[in-house]
Amino acid sequence: xxxxxxxxxxxxxxxGYGEGFPDHSTASIRIKPDGRVEVKTAAADxxxxxxxxxxxxxxxxxxxxxxxxxLVNGDTAVTRSSGSTSATRQTFFTGNAVMNTAQILRSIIxxxxxxxxxxxxxxxxxxxxxxxxxxxxxxxxxxxxxxxxAAERGEKLEAEGxxxxxxxxxxxSNGQGERVYVSYTFxxxxxEVEIDLGTGQVEVIRMxxxxxxxxxxxxxxxxxxxxxxxxxGIGMALMEEILFDEYGTLLNPNLxxxxxxxxxxxxxxxxxxxxxxxxxxxxxxxxxxxxxxxSTAPAIINAIYNACGVRIKELPAxxxxxxxxxxxxxxxx
Length: 333
Known about the structure:
The protein is α+β, with helices and mostly antiparallel strands. The protein is built from 7 helices and 11 strands. It has 2 domains: 2-15 and 182-330, Aldehyde Oxidoreductase, domain 4, CATH 3.30.365; 25-163, Aldehyde oxidase/xanthine dehydrogenase, molybdopterin binding domain (Aldehyde Oxidoreductase, domain 4, 2-Layer Sandwich), CATH 3.30.365.10. The protein has helices at residues 50-62, 90-117, 143-152, 219-238, 291-294, 296-308, 319-330; strands at residues 2-14, 25-31, 37-41, 69-73, 124-127, 130-133, 141-142, 158-163, 184-196, 202-212, 268-271. The strands form 3 sheets. Strands 1-9-10-11 form a 4-stranded mixed beta sheet. Strands 4-3-2-8 form a 4-stranded mixed beta sheet. Strands 5-6-7 form a 3-stranded antiparallel beta sheet. Helix 1 packs parallel to helix 2 and helix 4 (219-238) crosses helix 6 (296-308). The two termini are 22 Å apart.
């Protein structure tokens, strides 16, 4: 006999190091002699797409195609610290650092263009790697030409900027603080499961996740994060467990015995992106790293309870644990 249940769980996640711990990111940007834009950042992209995001941010502010961005990343000889790729911080911190730097460089380019044209800022705009005078578009000057003019004047079209917010330690007596984290990401996950009451086996049938990421700079990346994080959450909820014998010997040291979800274990997933713009984020964006996973396991555990009335309090919810709790329930314990 099989039963189905639905569970829901929500998470509020303070991203960045927080709690008064120093946390910052630095970036530099320059216009190369050929007019392409070079962005230097030490931010490590481990598949979450931060380099795509910072390229979009720089391209948007400088009025260039994303394809014109050249990235130099992870080189300690030429890049300053961007902090760790952890704590769901890179989009917010390095994104802000790149945004600040691009805005500084934008003002430097404008300043040179004003001298070249003899016009004021409002009379000029950026478009497709060029500075263009309003009403005289045929007189546009490319970034490559401006870089050459700057070099002839002994100047450089380059800038460096940082993002270094201040957070405060929480009060040890109550855990509260004035600004413990710079901001918070919210995620709600709904899981539908089917349980075989004879074997205790749980199958996740469907999942819906609603992440509040501020403004989604790259919606497809947000969906990818949610799908990957939810898959990891399924592993946490139902199968991933390190086992030792009484002597401390690891009993499942490889992937044939330490089980992780495969494509056959991951159900149909739907991501509903909630865009509640974050005033402090780059273009209103927030991170979606760890929060993509955290709400998955409790949603599944709640769905198990909804399906068969047993509450699993120790992860993972293996068939053995579920059968044991079902027997207790049947016995009135």
